[in-house]
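Researcher: Last one for today. Full complex below.
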Amino acid sequence: MRLSHTPTSSEELKPSLVPPFLAATLSLIIPGLGQILARTIRRGLLLLFSFATITGLLVWRFIETARRDTGLINIVKKGLSLEPALVILSILVIVFYIWNVVDAYAIANRSGSNPAGLLFLVIIIFFMLGWQIGQIDLVALITQADDAGPALTSVLWPWERSIEYPKDIVTTTAQIQIPCTETPPAPSGALEDAPYLLADPTCGTLTEFEGAPGSTVTLTGHNFIPNTRANIWWKDPIGNEFRQRQGGEYINITPDENGAFKIDIVLPYRLVPANIRDVTTIWEIQIRQVASIGDWQFSTELKLAIEKIIETIFIGMMATFFGILLALPVSFFAARNLMSASPITLGIYFITRTILNIIRSIEPLIWAIIFVVIVGLGPFAGIMALTIHSIAALGKLYSESIESIDPGPIEAIQATGANWLQVVVYAVIPQIIPPFVSFTIYRWDINIRMSTIIGFVGGGGIGFLLSQWIRLMDYKAAGIAVWFIAITVAILDFVSAEVRQRFV
Amino acid sequence: MLEVRHLTKIYDDGTVALRDVNFIVPDGEFLVIIGLSGSGKSTLLRCINRLIDPTEGEIIWDGVDLAKLGGDDLRMARRKIGMVFQHFNLVRRSSVITNVLAGRLGYTSSRQSLLGRFSAEDNAKAQHALERLGIEDQAHKRADELSGGQQQRVGVARALMQEPKMILADEPVASLDPVLAHSLMQQLEILNKEDKITILCSLHYLDLVQRYATSVFGLRDGEIVYRGTREEIRAMNDEEFKEIYGQEAERVGGGLQGDLLTANGGGA
Ligand SMILES: Nc1ncnc2c1ncn2[C@@H]1O[C@H](COP(=O)(O)OP(=O)(O)OP(=O)(O)O)[C@@H](O)[C@H]1O
Ligand SMILES: [Mg+2]
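Model: Here's the assembly. Have a good evening.
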């Protein structure tokens, strides 16, 4: 395609079909028409197509920008006021339109007109449209970079998330007698190095339903974990546990720096079975505090990530393995030099090639989605997706290396009186092993890389964790996954380079 | 004795490469085929061991028509016909010894050859063949690590392993420099004289033809246009030689002249 109008000898011989003024008028009605009738058909068509495309896109941008408005004037007004880029674009399109008319005149007049400027204008317009449609926002890239800071830091150094301290709930109890009798239970004694809870008094009455509030008990605690929130729970005589509320709210206590606290609570309302309603019962009040016990250990996230990275590697491995297994026979059917013997085999060749091309043109992620639908979430779907893509990709590469083998050695071995099998073993296989090994390593590489993200669509492997953690905005955990992926891929690169060096 | 009768080869695209070719080669002959590029030399040689199927005609060798053979019979016949190629056609990534042993495939069962096992006798033969051609110290190198001259010796050794009664050599020295060309032709001559192997060889250089051929014929457009004995070819000068090549002789002759000079200088 040549937009440039260099008057060739034939064009000089044939004058324009229309006079300059008419050409200009025609281009005013339909851009490019004047040029076409002036016998610069390619230029005219190009102008026509670019003008049509540009106006179409521009109209779409206007409608898109002024989505809520109707009526031509309103849409244009709204579009121009909302998007300064549309103003510039509109001006450029008008310039383009006028230029096209002037160009038509000049062409028909055979006075020559340099198309470079026009071409440049078209390119500028397309570029601006692209900017608009792509919603390119360089400012956001800079101003919002700060927001990504914390997340990015977490991802870059997530390792504090790799360990955790086991937690346990420490429950400290005191007994309350309900209702009070002459002999209320004795308060538990003070302890040296374990938390203890004192209630005063150790008996009382419960809050009545829509009636009098229960009696107040002062709780004093010592040796609790300092500055760490604790909850108040009750255990009623039949063993049911419930949380203390006051005015409808759960109440929490936070011991001071010495691990001590003091709080007044009103005995709660609680419906109990009739048989114990009127007898004296012992209720248990509990202070529950979450405490770290023992040494650090690897965090759940780290363990999960390790589990899933292993799964990932095996997904890639199994897919490569199955891929090789099935691609090998397929590649023979897809090799033209082996299949050109008869029209039937040639037909098989074309069908195989076509199927392989179709399969290959569908991305593994799409295959994963398809297989998730068929076999459900998990690594199997991922393996299937990568396998089918590997078959197609390897089948093509293998068959091409079969096609490119040197027929010379095959003839030479045939000439010795060798049979078909011997020819394959001595002349064909030695020639295809190096490319096969090299393509297989290449595929294994791709499969591992793909298996790290196939989990994003439910295909199993570490990608599944990564997508979950990103959605939960747990960037530290996500960072662990990212690191694992990076390390795996780096090791893989190294290994495949080594293998390639050995075998190829 | 090899007798070719009415041999015609028409390729699928309609090219007539051989047109009613008739000739007889007595045992022990060193027959050289000359002819322009495209005259049908390769086609002729390949028809004889049926790498190409002739369209018509008979190829009678020891009373059997090779043109009619197929399957195992053809393989049995091929075992006794060695072939040496212009581009050596070695399995480049295999070792020299494997390439040479491949010459025994026709005598080895599928199962044994699948495992890469050749009899002790075959291994000894291979060793001997390599020694005869002076490349015994290259045995365990990869074929493509050898020089062109060495590779072609491997090719000859492979043919020799077949214990052939006839060797077809399609421009065996065309990829070699003149010195190597002479030494390889000498090897073939030794095989011809000592082992009584019939040799059919296509060549381009007049001095090689004059030096080694016991009989010559010239092909042009798939037809034999010249037949000469050893004496006749020795007496032939460049002008006559060019005549065989037809109208295009000038161009080919020019190149030939230069090649002849270097070949003579180097071979002397
Ligand atoms: N496979 C093929 N299909 C069609 N035509 C072929 C084929 N092989 C050779 N030919 C044609 O047959 C004719 C003879 O070819 P051949 O290779 O036998 O010539 P040659 O004498 O060996 O030439 P050169 O000296 O270049 O090797 C040529 O015209 C060639 O183009
Ligand atoms: Mg040839």
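Chain B has two domains: 23-53+71-80+165-268, 93-163. Chain B is about 40% helix and 20% strand.
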